[in-house]
Amino acid sequence: MNSNSNQTPETLFSIRRNESSSIRSDTSDRILPVNEVDEDPFCVLCILWKSGKLGAAYFRSSERQLYVLQEVMDVAPEFGVTRSLFREVNPSHTLTTGNISDMFVKCIINILKGDNNEEDNSNNSHTLQTNTLPANITLLNIKDYCFDNCEHKAYNVTVSSEPKDLTVTQQEVFRHSLIGFDSKVTVHALGALIKYLEKNWSHINTSNTELTFLHINKVSLNDSVLIDQNTFNSLQIFDVKSHDSNFKRGLQSHTREGFSIYRLLSQHCISKIGYQCLRSILANPTNNVDELKKRLDFIQFALDAKNQTLIENLQETIKKISDLTFIFRKIQYARGNARDWETLYTTIYNMLFLHELCTPYVKSVAIFATLDRAITAKLYNLQASINNGLDFSQGNKRVRPLIKMGLDSELDKKELQKCDISKNATAAARIVLNQLPQFIDGCSVVYMPELGHFVVIKEWEANCDKKELEEHGLQFVFELNQSLHYKNALCTDMDKQLGNIYLEILFHENRIIQRLTDFVLSSFKEILEPLKIIAMIDCLIGMSRVSKEGAYVRPSINESSIMEIEDGRHPLLELFCTNFVPNSYFSGGESGRMKIITGPNDSGKTIFLKQIALIVYLAHIGCYVPVKKANIGIMSSIHSKIHINESASVSLSAFMLDLTQMSQSLHNAKKNSLVLIDEFGRGTTGDDGFALFTGALKSFVEMGDLCPHVVVCTHFQQMSNYLSGSDTVSFLKMDYEKRDSDIVYLYKVVDGISNSFAFDVAKAAGLDENIISRAREFYQLLCGDGVSLVDDNQFEPITFNIGDINIPDLN
């Protein structure tokens, strides 16, 4: 057993002058050295793409767990699933095969560069440097990492959660329960990851601990709604900001969440695991109807007034449930102190208590039924074993775990023997103290394994004579932390009587704790699965609280690609607007699937665009939505061209980025996709932008029944001349009123086509009246009204000969 506590001194008792009895130290003898297994957390992802199939595996150092992606199809050159996976995993280092000219490798490099633009994680990257690639990516040699070698690695991987004493057949069944060996690309990725970690562990690990895997988890993206990072940013799903303090900026642990959907929904989460689960849910919206129904059913249950007492009890219990990630690692490496073991016990106890609270509702609430299946008899046995074996009644929590009396008779005998001898030695120790000079206020007797007993006296003055006490029968041995250690007749006698009983007790306790540790690690899956479900319960209770406060309603979910949103509201903007104007949106079925919205600047077009997307998005994470009524069709993807973050590192103009996003939408959008386009074509000439925009929209229209749901905001009013003949297209505008030559926005979407009212907008923005007047003249001239831009009478004609121009000599 690996224990660094063997050389820790054990204080038997301390005696001070003028005290009637000795002060027994029951816990200081068990203080552990400050030597944690903490390190900079990192994540290594191995991702492979072959013949359209994507396989991946990744390892999180903070959890010591492997994750394997169920093999999935990913279409080139967009690689939408790959992009979603990177957004979810956010790896410190990436492994793949191929060369830098391969299409898939180029895609990964672009993704990593994009991530670095948003947030510099270079300080957290644990990498092996290369000369041809970014520092956080490694191209594996296919000869060294061939499929056969990697399959062998994956098949023979050892995890701590594997039960002990399994037969060969049982071991094979256990491995196949964790890894789908029929998914060749995923198995290849997992084996390559394991081999890479084993080969480079000494380079990437900073904690000097050996490489171990607690468990292997399966991850699936088959039911994910594909959303690109720009759309996430535009919709403000997450809004991570740097810390206000300069010296904390750039650290992942010191960022803060801005105004976002995550911040809105997380305000009622009460546990760390709940926050982590919510972030994962938001990053991976799903189109799995059964999963969405399960989440919506629970929110409906939580909102029911007759269930409020249960929900409050659940929240009170969840508060006592901790994230066990770091504690598992400490226990695994025999570094767990009494506080860690008590946290583990408290968490397991409250998991079981929460299960008991939910049991009466198993038949009516699906998520409770899932929790009921996850709770096993082994978990109850583990809770009982910890409770029967460890004593948490001591006040000092930074000590080694204390074994309960009565658990082991042999250990109890040794403890009683030690106690009896220590009591007899107390009287002798007082005699020793009385024989010492008056300037010695007190002393302690300690035991150090293999060195024996010592009388310990604090330095009574600076640079004191350590041998001054020899005439009192104390022989100086050594100094430690300003404490002088002496031997005397009492110490020699105790060494003879006790021998190595303290060391025997320590080893005996360690053997018991090791058996308990093995039980905990073998029960890792039984602990982890209920924790995931409880984290989900915490998330959904938080969503129910937000839904109640915001008067959200349950959306109906259909698989007919029909969108019906009645009086929808923007979930973030309505928090700041007391008179927010709701708007409806209908698409599919009897309604056209393309909506073209016109209106003045600042009239609410973009807000309406984002509002539609957010309502659809919230429905796909299983949350209630801010509407009067909603029937949401299941989506496979959401695409947008709403807001572009230009960057010099991208080497693309704003218009090129516009074209890139439009091209991706045209290639990837399907019938059950939502496409949002805001002011396309502003980065080029009006005629070019209009021609390209109209051509792109016509391409959508020509898809017929396969046309995705398209919502467009534009100032190209003339587009109605080219698209008005199709039943697919509907023209909407932002309503307004004219009051005393001023324009008043009503923020209501109505049928029709609107003027841009550019001059009114400029006036409302405070632009100088002379400039606006002159702009009107230009506009009338361009419209062919014959207004001259200049007064010819103000100028006299000038004639000159080009040959008369004096050109300077450049030499």
From TrEMBL:
Domain of life: Eukaryota
Keywords, comma-separated and alphabetical: ATP-binding, DNA-binding, Nucleotide-binding
Composition skew (Polar residues), residue ranges: 1-11
Chain spans, region Disordered: 1-20
InterPro entries cross-referenced by the UniProt entry: DNA_mismatch_repair_MutS_C (IPR000432), DNA_mismatch_repair_MutS_core (IPR007696), DNA_mismatch_repair_MutS_sf (IPR036187), MutS (IPR045076), P-loop_NTPase (IPR027417)
Family according to the record: Belongs to the DNA mismatch repair MutS family.
Protein name, entry field: DNA mismatch repair proteins mutS family domain-containing protein
Native organism taxonomy: Eukaryota, Metazoa, Ecdysozoa, Arthropoda, Hexapoda
